[in-house]
Amino acid sequence: MAPRTFWKGYLKLSLVTCPVTLMPATTEGEKVRFHTLNARTGNRVVSQYVDSVTERPVRDEDEVKGYERGENDYVMLEDDEIEAVALESTRTIDIDMFVPDHSIGWVWYDRPHFLLPGDEVGQEAFAVIRDAMAATGTVGISRVVMYRRERAVMLKPCDKGIVLWTLRYGDEVREAGDYFDKVGAEKPEAKLMTLVRKLIDERSTQWDAHMVDDPVQARLLDIIAAKQKGRKKPARVRAPKVETPDNVIDIMTALKKSIQAEGQRGSR
Hints:
Belongs to the prokaryotic Ku family. Helices cover 25% and strands 26% of the residues. The protein is of the alpha+beta class. It has a domain of 108 residues: Ku70, Chain: A, Domain 2. The strands form two sheets. The protein has an eight-stranded mixed sheet. It has a two-stranded antiparallel sheet with strand order 3-4. The protein is extended, with a radius of gyration of 27 Å.
């Protein structure tokens, strides 16, 4: 069953406009989720905001956003003040500019969404924007209100549609150089590179979605199914004992042993 439409609006490039629909490209709907219960009664536990000083419950109408400017000193903002700084239109993806494809590093990517034409009439306008970006090797940059916040987004052609990525805010991204500059710049020996490439060749295969299956979720579902049928829960899967490597490693010897082990595994 196709998921319900997450967002409806318009895609706009200058005077070209077409209706579009937007849906998340990923889902957590199949994840095992738990409620917190009272073990004595079996009833669900509800959460409630409590004043940190008076320890009394706070009514919904008394809740307000606060920006901390000092210890126990806050600037209070009402909901209408916060909403006033948002985009005027929350339903139009107006492409402001284009940048070369691959010029935006992966670290800026946040959430992917599928962008589709909203009706048959708008398919031609949608297709020409999509195909023009693909032909020029560019992606579109815009801003739109999503998840109750104004987000910068990137539009990238994909097959017959467009993938819209929300982008991270500038203060969320750290500079890689602050960390990688501390790594030594020396090149590894050619012999070592040859052996590692041989290991890579031995382990290379085609991508399969099953590579990222969640084994913990599968075990949780087994436990839940057993409890529903009144059986004992499955035996706990113990993690294999991990041997602590020596601090001093002969890389050449380790690689040769690794390749030998790969050959034995392949023959099996």
